[in-house]
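About this split. The held-out portion is used to measure sequence recovery: a designer receives only the structure tokens and must propose an amino acid at every position. Recovery is the fraction of positions where the proposal matches the reference. Here is one held-out target exactly as it appears in the evaluation file.
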């Protein structure tokens, strides 16, 4: 009954507007009206009115018959990031780690069963690839995905149930093999991505814990295989784990590492 009452308290128009906004993704950043209606189940007339309202607030843009998310969202990015305790706490450690090792250091959390990057410390000594805050990556082919789900394998199982994509020859697409990998991550306290997301890039990651002992984020370092082959990047594991433990301690974790 409580759930039903809560549902009744929702504003239907706002729910529909949010449903429309959630249609857009990295894979489909531009959509036609009929595609939006089909994806949301909202009739085209209603969707059209809502899109026009969102346009008034720069939350939706329209060009050549296609709709996309508007620039109005950009002003919220910094507000959201600054409100994240894990990001504020971790940034100084990320920068120190990056400076010490002369590698790029990343911080990510799990959101909607995906890896979401919320901070990065870059170094001119390791300039490669494209990166932006809010970037999403799959669980099954990233070192961060492995540490973020090492204690919650059911999340990974759900991802495999929905179907996973092969990105490189070394991407793990077999569920049993991935579960075995997660068990290894739990035992050793870190994960490695051996060119599983992108050819020519190796990555290692370690979990960050909160006061309740839950994995709330992951910290990683990555680099091109030409500079950081497996044996080289694995040399950085002890230091990476040390930084992950230091961040965890700042978050109140009291664990016997």
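Reference sequence for scoring:
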């Amino acid at each position: 009954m409580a759930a039903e009452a809560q549902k009744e308290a929702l504003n239907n128009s706002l729910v529909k507007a949010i449903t429309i906004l959630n249609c857009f993704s990295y894979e489909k950043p531009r959509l036609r009206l009929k595609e939006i209606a089909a994806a949301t189940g909202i009739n085209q007339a209603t969707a059209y009115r809502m899109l026009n309202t969102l346009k008034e607030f720069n939350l939706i843009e329209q060009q050549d018959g296609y709709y996309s998310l508007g620039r109005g969202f950009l002003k919220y990015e910094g507000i959201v990031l600054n409100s994240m305790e894990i990001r504020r706490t971790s940034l100084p450690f990320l920068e120190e780690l990056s400076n010490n090792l002369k590698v790029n250091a990343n911080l990510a959390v799990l959101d909607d069963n995906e890896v979401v990057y919320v901070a990065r410390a870059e170094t001119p000594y390791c300039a490669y690839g494209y990166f932006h805050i809010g970037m999403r990556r799959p669980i099954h082919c990233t070192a961060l995905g492995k540490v973020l789900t090492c204690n919650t394998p059911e999340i990974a199982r759900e991802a495999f149930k929905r179907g996973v994509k092969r990105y490189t020859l070394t991407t793990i697409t077999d569920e049993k093999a991935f579960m075995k990998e997660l068990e290894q991550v739990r035992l050793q306290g870190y994960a490695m991505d051996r060119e599983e997301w992108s050819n020519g890039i190796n990555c290692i990651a370690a979990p960050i814990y909160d006061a309740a002992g839950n994995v709330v984020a992951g910290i990683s370092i990555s680099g091109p295989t030409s500079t950081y082959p497996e044996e080289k990047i694995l040399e950085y594991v002890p230091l990476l784990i040390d930084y992950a433990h230091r961040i965890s301690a700042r978050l109140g974790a009291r664990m016997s590492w």
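Annotator remark: Residues 85-101 form the longest helix (17 residues).
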